[in-house]
Each structure stands twice: as C-alpha cells, then as structure tokens.
Amino acid sequence: MSLWRRLFRRSRPLRVDDYGELAGATLRDEQLVELTGEIEALESIVDPIAGGRFVVLEYGAWPQSTTPGIDGASPTASSAFQLTCHQATDFVLVKGGKRLLIRVDRGRDVGELHGELIDRYGLSLRAEAHGIRGGDRVRVLGAIERLAAVGSPMRGDPYLAVIAAQRIWPLVADV
Predict the structure, then answer these.
(1) Is the CB of residue 13 less than 8 Å from the CB of residue 33?
(2) Residues 69, 23: Cα–Cα separation, whole Å
(3) Coil/strand/helix, residue 155
(4) Digitized pLDDT (tens) for each residue of the chain, 175 residues in all
(5) How far apart are CA 151 and CA 12, in angstroms?
(6) Which of 161, 33, 146, 149 is nearest to 98 (CA)?
(7) Stretch (H or E) spanning 7
(8) How many CA atoms within 13 Å lie on the side-chain side of 83?
(9) Of 171, 170, 160, residue with least CA distance to 56
(10) How far apart are the C-alpha atoms of 69 and 75, rounded to whole Å?
(11) Separation of alpha carbons 164 and 119, rounded Å
C-alpha cells in the first residue's frame, strides 16, 4: 500500500450508523470512526460553579486584568489572560441496545483548579463551565482500540468495541 493511500485513509473517518456494523467487520485497530449515540455515565464530574454533574466539562476563567488599558478594555472586562481546561470521564455510548466503551483524555481536575484560582484572584475571577451530561446525545470521533471478540456467547465482551475518543460534541435536538 502506498504512503499516500495510508495517509488519505487515516484522515477520513468511517461513519458508523449502526453499531452492529462493528461486530464482525473487517476494521483494524486505530481506524478512525465517527459514531453517534446517547451517553450512559460510568462516573460523573461535579461542576465547581453550579454544582451540576457532567461526563465532559469545559472550564474557562478570566481573572481581573492587571494591566488596565493595555489590552484595550477596562480591568473588569478584560480578556488579556484567559485560562481554559477540560475534564472528562470514560463513558458508554448506547444506540439501539448496543454499547461501546468510550475512553477519553481525563484532563485536569477542574474543581481543584477553580479552587486555586478563587484563592489567588478572589471574587474578581470570572468563570464559566459547559458540559455534556449522561443521557445527552453526542457525536464521537475516535480510533478503535479493540473490537469485541467473536466466539462463545458465554465469553462475550460487555462492549462491542472500545474507542479512544479524539473529539466529542453534543447533538442539538431537532425542534
């Protein structure tokens, strides 16, 4: 197989609409796939600002500017310094009764970071968090880590596949 063919194949993920296609398919490890489904939480992360429970949490904080006027804004509305981070937990993606384990980059402990920033900047810290909860519908782009072994029903894996997520985004409900 030529180098160009290998590079082109990796750049285009295989879109999987029915998880049953993964069972017995001729897919290889590390193949990129794009999946949709509903999240079933294995564990949750507590939002340090509002207290909600999430599976994936994106956090952003903006302390008061120490150089008013330099960045063209007032000290309370400056975005000269912005800190962002994420935290996530592994979860199960469910569709049509079939289940896939999605493994994620766990990121940094958002609660700990928020506490450190509050101690340092006090009430002048502006912060917000957005997340994805259990039960939300999402699209996942990831690489196949392993497929379920085909064999005896007594030795079946609990998941059809294990996917290493590279990107996760929520799907907006049709209105």
Answers:
(1) yes
(2) 60
(3) helix
(4) 566 666 665 567 888 888 777 765 666 667 888 999 999 999 999 999 999 999 999 999 988 765 555 555 555 555 567 889 999 999 999 998 889 999 999 999 999 999 999 998 888 888 999 999 999 999 999 998 888 765 556 566 788 889 999 999 999 865 4
(5) 30
(6) 161
(7) helix 3-11
(8) 16
(9) 170
(10) 7
(11) 35
Q: How far apart are the first and last CA of the chain?
A: 46
- Cβ 133 vs Cβ 70: under 8 Å: no
Amino acid at position 41, single letter: A
Q: Are strands 91-95 and 98-103 parallel, antiparallel or unpaired?
A: antiparallel
Which residues, listed in sequence order, are joined to residue 44 by a DSSP beta bridge?
none
Q: How many residues does the chain have?
A: 175
Q: What is the DSSP letter of 111?
A: H
Q: Do 40 and 100 contact (CB within 8 A), yes or no?
A: no
pTM (predicted TM-score): 0.79
Place of tokens 């509002």: 50
Single-letter amino acid code for the residue at 26: T
